[in-house]
Amino acid sequence: MADDPEFDVEGWRTELEEKRTEKDEFFSTHPQSPIPPEDREAFDGLDYFEPDPQYRLEATVSIPDDPASDPVYMETTAGGEVRYLRTVVLTMGLEREEPNLADAELELAGYEQEGTDGALFVPFRDKTTGQMTYGGGRYMELEAEDDLAEGDSIVVDFNLAYTPFCAYSETFACPLPPEENWLEVAIPAGERFE
């Protein structure tokens, strides 16, 4: 998607940097920050991979027949479980410029909690998990302008992948990505956590 002639790379990069600055501000000053109050003064911002448009992909949507008949139970960092519905499956091709990183065909499920009507929750692990990124995986949230249908396209921007709050404080219980969303490639985009 980065090679789309209508894609404004500089505008995208500027918007991404602004979102990162806003998030750092929230983490350092907001009462609901996951950074413990006693650590906020020393907090100097989250660690990010450099913005990279090759990790902004166009995915094709598949819709499962009956999501409610096959719920997904995700374990949480606190030891419990959370029930989700697999409402979409996203398939996308990843073509990379680096010679040491292979191209790949990726598939990720997107989930919603029953009774909610909001962003798609896309938790995932990849080959950076536990090394350059949080050991419990990372999250993305995707929003479509309309209800998604079979064969639709949606942008999946791994530069927006973020670390769940439980990485910073045990007061949060976070769902762990199910095995179907464990990618066999490294995705060096989004938030780092070492």
TrEMBL record:
It comes from the Archaea. Residues 10-27 have a biased composition (Basic and acidic residues). It holds the Pfam family DUF1684. Residues 1-48 are annotated as: Disordered. PANTHER family: DUF1684 DOMAIN-CONTAINING PROTEIN. This is DUF1684 domain-containing protein.
